[in-house]
Design a protein that fits this description.
The strands form four sheets. The chain has an eight-stranded mixed sheet with strand order 1-2-3-4-8-5-7-6, with helices on both faces. Strands 14-15-19-16-18-17 form a six-stranded mixed sheet. With 971 residues, the chain is α+β, with helices and mostly antiparallel strands. 44% of the residues lie in helices and 18% in strands.
């Protein structure tokens, strides 16, 4: 009886507040603009509708003098013509190519050539004879060469980066295409000018080189088994609806036969003001901002949208089984077709997903499968789309498990939900966690802006979006049990992802194009106007850590405090000045702890108690630091700290549980050795550090098996007596010092000695690992000099100017001009610690047959720093604007200061970087490049299918070594 009462008390405590009433009200400002707000909306969102139908979402966030912008268009791959799939995605790419005013050197001469190219593509699409198609493509290539003489590549990106923008990108999905930028608030009007120009018309310049980039993206998807599984899953779940029949990337035959006419038609039909929105969240003035938006976007004309046929799927009545093969480890996915976003059934499915797996690791799958280590990993989740949705169960079986056994494990958990065999406190705890996550999301400009554009895409009002949590709160256990019994039938899709050769591989071949002329030093009159226009200046603000961070002592331990001015979410961090370099077993001990309970609470009970409190815990071990963190409701932090100490102090060793954990670790290592991303990371590390590194210096199988579980719990207990400091982010520092005091014990143990790992010179070796994949990935790494704080400004501008981003020289040359890779970059990374070396990394991801050309192109670029004064000034000013409009806040205040100590600095280093950049010239950057970077020698890491590679070309790069998975992983 006592336990039941305690649970009821905790449920009462974790209920953050009673349901708030959200109701839309309308207001008219002094300029006559009417807008909607929602009562009790703490974010203060205003929703305007201009006369042309354009929705404008505005909200204030004063974290920094910047604005997060999104332009969401209510169209995506579901609106692709059936004979031109992939069109919406390709159009998204082409929206970065400029207009008749932007990115052209001579529109009068360029336009007739673009029209000719369009006509040739129509002929190419209609032609059935393969040889004639090749001849037409050759003609397209020839005319494209001529047209490129008048094109200015990446001028949109140059215009946007000149504002100090960051995060410039876009994405396309089922029912959405979203354009993204984060800009300084003083550049809002210039940003609107550029975006108005972009949305005013579509100009399909540099079409065939961008098409080549889309080919590369398609081929990259062939190496991503997550996508391959999703394609099969969606096809089976939606046999008639576009959700499953039209992938965002498109069908290969449609990519090979594009229509510029069809793309223009799509743009004219869907890119109209009543079908997209303007979402602006940041440090803005509502009245001034809506006037500016109306000034630039209010001139677009309203246009009726095409009539859309409603496609309704027949109910699924049987189990549909599909198989996907790839080189990665096997897994199983079961999915049921669910309901659309915002419906009651979608909410119920979401609740079931959280009853099975949740952020507190206290769901049925969490506790019955993952906690008991009955599989390598298992999860459940609901994905609600604009139309329909999918509920999925995913499990990665152990080596000795069959798919049928794994399937039964998962369906058994569904049966528990059907029977109502889950605890009553779980649904209230899930709702509480949803409130906490929503609070965290809405406190950031990007989080709120993302939620706003999501509500627009899904045709939901902001009132409906806010009220969603109230609808969740009405859900009862009886509702969930009834839903589960009605919903979970033998009417699902099962995807078996087997290890093997992909027998459904479809590769889009390179049609062969001639590199185009880039006109890098040209500028259109439009860009010149943007660059010449002066904006009000944002003065940089550099933080005085000593004023913002309060410090005190708790039982001899230093404790730092930063005030949370946003909400009631608090964080407590216990920061230990040592990590895996000091003790290889430290990460293992914290991992094992997750499976252990105490003499009073089982491991499962501990997870439940933390979740009831609305507090998450995290043990994170890096090479030089262990951080134990608690995050959640500040009112429950005292109980969470008490629970944490009890867990660490009284963890009960269990050799059987430990042995099972070792088995899971060893099987997890085998999974890593089948995963392309992890293999490439291991190979790159091997190229950087050689045979002996912290990555390869892992506990062996015999070492793991020889460890006693009690050794691990002793190690955790000893942490309480080790040196550490405390950081609290919240509201009541005085209260924290009182309730945190019992956690602190007398310091009686010292930091273990640190193991120093060699950082050998890079001397021109090439390391290759064979992997069955469509593309090839290559990374070069060079060891540089020890970090020099006087060069940080130069390195910042170098990365902006030369190596990274859409307007960088590397991106322009490798992708835009020569179409040699979908992804290519050069990055100079400075050491985070004094007396440690910097490293320069280059990366190319491309088709195997293009690799030699791509390597040559990269080498030519890096032989001498390209001299483009206008682009340098653009990069320099962009770097200055980003620093001037950047602000350090929240927990970053403490952790930035902590990291600066490793560099011997106790102040905001951005101040020095800003001054250095202000004085920087292209000649200075060139001198730095010539003296510091040109002498560097590189080691190379290459992963790909050996039979597809030109081995002679690889041998020319450097001394060739084919290395095994065992060598690069260390096991």
């Amino acid at each position: 009886m006592k336990r039941i009462i305690t649970t009821i008390i905790i449920i009462g405590a974790l209920t953050m507040s009673n349901a708030q009433k959200f109701e839309t009200t309308k207001t008219t400002d002094n300029s006559g603009y009417q807008y909607e707000t929602v009562i009790n909306d703490k974010s203060g969102v205003r929703v305007y509708t201009l006369k042309n139908g354009l929705k404008v979402f505005l909200a204030k966030n004063d974290d920094a003098p910047r604005i997060q912008t999104y332009i969401p268009v209510r169209t995506g791959s579901n609106n692709d013509p059936a004979d031109n799939t992939g069109l919406a995605h390709y159009l998204e790419h082409m929206m970065f190519k400029g207009t008749s005013n932007l990115a052209t050197a001579n529109w009068a001469k360029e336009k007739p050539l673009l029209d000719q190219i369009s006509n040739l593509y129509e002929q190419h699409k209609a032609e059935q004879d393969p040889e004639k198609k090749k001849a037409l493509y050759k003609k397209i290539d020839e005319v494209s060469q001529e047209a490129s003489k008048y094109a200015i590549a990446n001028e949109y990106d140059k215009a946007i980066s000149s504002l100090g923008a960051s995060g410039t990108n876009a994405h396309t999905w089922l029912d959405e295409t979203v354009y993204k930028n984060n800009i300084p608030n003083n550049e809002l009007e210039k940003w609107l000018k550029v975006e108005k120009e972009r949305f005013s018309e579509l100009t399909l310049r540099l079409f065939h080189t961008e098409l080549e980039a889309v080919y590369e993206e398609y081929n990259r998807a062939q190496d991503n088994d997550g996508r391959l599984v999703n394609y099969e899953l969606m096809d089976a779940l939606f046999p008639t609806h576009p959700n499953g029949q039209q992938t965002t990337i498109g069908k290969s035959e449609h990519l090979k036969n594009p229509s510029m006419v069809a793309i223009h038609k799509y743009f004219d039909e869907y890119y109209v003001p009543n079908n997209y929105a303007m979402v602006l969240v940041g440090d803005l003035d509502y009245d001034k901002t809506i006037k500016l938006v109306d000034q630039y976007f209010g001139t677009f004309k309203y246009k009726e949208l095409p009539k859309k046929q409603t496609i309704t799927e027949e109910p699924m009545t049987a189990i549909v089984e599909r198989t996907v093969k790839s080189a990665s480890t096997p897994r199983l996915q079961l999915s049921w077709r669910s309901d659309s976003y915002g419906t009651q059934n979608a909410r119920l499915a979401d609740i079931v997903g959280n009853i099975l797996t949740n952020s507190g690791d206290s769901g049925l799958i969490d506790l019955n499968i993952n906690q008991k280590q009955k599989a390598l990993n298992a999860m459940a989740y609901e994905s609600a789309f604009k139309n329909y949705g999918s509920f999925s169960l995913i499990i990665v079986p152990k080596n000795d498990q069959t798919f049928d056994e794994a399937k039964k494990l998962m369906l058994d958990q569904i049966d528990l939900v059907k029977k109502g065999e889950f605890q009553d406190w779980l649904i209230p705890a899930i709702i509480n966690d949803m409130k906490i996550q929503r609070m965290k999301t809405y406190e950031t400009a990007d989080g709120l802006a993302t939620s706003l554009y999501g509500s627009y895409i899904n045709d939901r009002t902001w009132e409906q979006e806010l009220n969603e949590i109230n609808e969740y709160e009405k859900i009862t256990k009886a509702d969930v049990v009834k839903f589960a019994n009605d919903f979970f039938k033998d009417n699902y899709v099962i995807i078996k992802k087997e290890k093997g050769v992909n027998d459904k591989l479809v590769r889009v071949e390179n049609p062969g194009i001639t590199p185009i002329k880039l006109n890098r030093e040209e500028q259109s009159p439009f860009l010149k106007g943007i660059l010449a226009e002066k904006s009000s200046e944002i003065k940089p603000e550099f933080i005085d850590y000593s004023k913002v961070i309060k410090t005190d002592k708790i039982g001899g331990k230093k404790v730092s405090f930063v005030h949370n001015k946003y909400n009631d979410i608090a964080q407590a961090h216990f920061v230990f000045p040592f990590g895996s370099d000091n003790d290889k077993e430290l990460g293992l001990a914290t991992q094992v702890l997750q499976y252990l309970g105490t003499n009073k609470l089982s491991a499962e009970d501990l997870k439940k108690e933390f979740f009831k409190l609305g507090i998450s815990n995290d043990f994170r071990t890096s090479q030089d630091q262990l951080r134990i963190s608690l995050s959640g409701l500040e009112e429950n932090m005292p109980k969470a700290i008490e629970l944490l100490k009890n867990w660490m102090q009284n963890a009960k060793p269990d050799q059987k549980v430990y042995a099972e954990n070792v088995k899971t670790i060893l099987e997890g290592r085998e999974v890593a050795k089948k995963d392309k991303g992890r293999i490439m990371a291991a190979l790159s590390n091997y190229a950087k550090y050689g045979k002996v590194s912290r990555f390869t210096d892992v506990l062996s199988k015999s070492q793991l098996e020889a460890i006693n579980s009690a050794d691990m719990t002793n190690k955790i207990q000893s942490l309480l007596k080790m040196p550490y400091e405390i950081f609290f982010y919240g509201q009541d520092f005085n209260a924290f010092k009182k309730y945190a005091k019992p956690f602190v014990e007398k310091e009686t143990m010292k930091v273990p000695a640190k193991n120093e790992y060699p950082e050998p010179p890079t001397t021109g070796n090439v390391y290759f690992t064979n992997y069955d994949m469509v593309q090839t990935e290559m990374s070069k790494v060079a060891k540089g000099p020890n970090v020099d704080l006087a060069n940080l400004g130069k390195i910042n501008v170098f990365n902006e100017y030369f190596g990274r981003g859409l307007s960088s020289i590397v991106f322009q040359e490798i992708r835009e001009s020569k179409s040699l890779a979908y992804s290519a970059y050069v990055s100079y990374a400075t050491s985070s610690e004094l007396n440690r070396p910097d490293y320069v990394t280059t990366y190319i991801g491309t088709q195997a047959n293009k690799l030699p050309q791509a390597v040559t192109a990269m080498d030519e670029l890096m032989a001498n720093l390209p001299q483009i004064p206008a682009q340098f000034e653009n990069a320099k000013n962009a770097a200055l604007k980003q620093i001037a409009s950047g602000r350090i806040n929240r927990t970053n205040i403490y952790f930035n200061q902590l990291n600066l100590k490793k560099l011997g600095v106790d102040y905001d280093l951005r101040k020095d970087i800003y001054k250095e950049i202000e004085k920087l010239s292209l000649a200075d950057l060139t001198d730095f490049y010539d003296s510091q970077m040109k002498p560097m020698k590189y080691n190379t890491a290459i992963i790909g299918k050996k039979e597809n590679l030109d081995m002679d070309a690889l041998n020319k790069i450097g001394t060739f070594h084919e290395v095994s998975l065992e060598e690069i992983f260390g096991y």
